[in-house]
Amino acid sequence: GGLSVFKELKKYLPSESFIYFADSINAPYGSKTSEEILELSEKIVKFLLVYKVKLIVVACNTVTAHAIKTLRENFSIPFVGMEPAVKPAALNTKTKHIGVLATAGTLKGNHFAQTTKTFANGIYVHTQVGEGLVQAVESGDFNSQNIRSILQEYIVPMVKQNIDHLVLGCTHYPFLCNQIKEIIGQKKITIINPAEPVALHTKNLLRRFNLQCNTNLHPRYQFFTTGEKTIMEKLILQTNIKTQPEVFKIKPL
To answer: Are 61 and 84 spatial neighbours (Cβ–Cβ below 8 Å)?
Structure first.
């Protein structure tokens, strides 16, 4: 799912090398407890630190909601998390109705509740748990009739509520954008993908800490997955990557 964030990161940071970890075998995180999410996240951080990374982007809304505060306390490295993009939707809605498609873990998190309370006062926020969508993306299923039927079940009721902004509250969901746009049809609904502002924030943070690389003409992209390597390679193609990626299948941490 975080590959949708990687796609934006490499656009804003073309000289940076990336080490990407996909814990596909344990997906989805949205149905796990906070304790499970934190335990898995700390193992991944320790894995990445072996490679001497200078900053970690937590490209998962659920992990951000349940673990990033503790990760920042336990590790002396900058972290960038995902923000539920309720704020831009609430500020720009004309109908006063916005939709949020997210995992159960994100919607139950304090961060989402606080963001909604702060920025969406007086706005009707229609939420929908995207049950099954993470698994579909993880298996490389973007265009089947089955996934279209699931998306219709989730999105059509929100459209009927007169939403004019739809927040994609999970990094897996941008891979389903084409299907979502077809379901929305001619309705004037803005789809908000939070990956771009996260990439911009990452760039600014690297600059602030004087960590940005501007001279690397041959950035290296390494991908580690606990899932199937072939599916990972298929997902990477969706990011329009030009540099040959290095993909490794590893045992669960």
So the answer is: yes
All structural domains of the chain, each given as residue ranges with its CATH number in brackets, are: 3-82+196-249 (3.40.50.1860), 86-193 (3.40.50.1860)
170 in helix, strand or coil?
Answer: coil
Phi, psi (degrees; rounded to nearest 5) at 153 = -60, -35
Q: Which residues contact 100 (CB under 8 A, 6 or more apart)?
A: 84, 86, 89, 107, 125, 126, 127, 128, 166, 167, 169
Average pLDDT over residues 115-129: 94
Give the pLDDT confidence of 187-224 residue by residue, as tens digits. 999 999 888 889 999 999 999 999 998 777 788 999 99
Which of 158, 100, 109 has its CA nearest to residue 129?
Answer: 100
Residues annotated as part of the active site: 60, 170
For the ranges 37-41, 61-65, 86-90, the one whose mean pLDDT is highest: 37-41
Mean pLDDT of the region 66-85: 92
Distances, alpha carbon 242 to alpha carbons 13, 85, 127, 221, 224, in Å? 14, 29, 36, 10, 18
> What is the pTM for the complete model shown?
0.82
Closest CA to 80 of 171, 183, 201: 201
Residue 34 tokens, joined: 């906070």
pLDDT band at 117 (very low <50, low <70, confident <90, very high): very high
Strand boundaries in 32-183, DSSP class E: 56-57, 79-80, 97-102, 124-129, 165-169
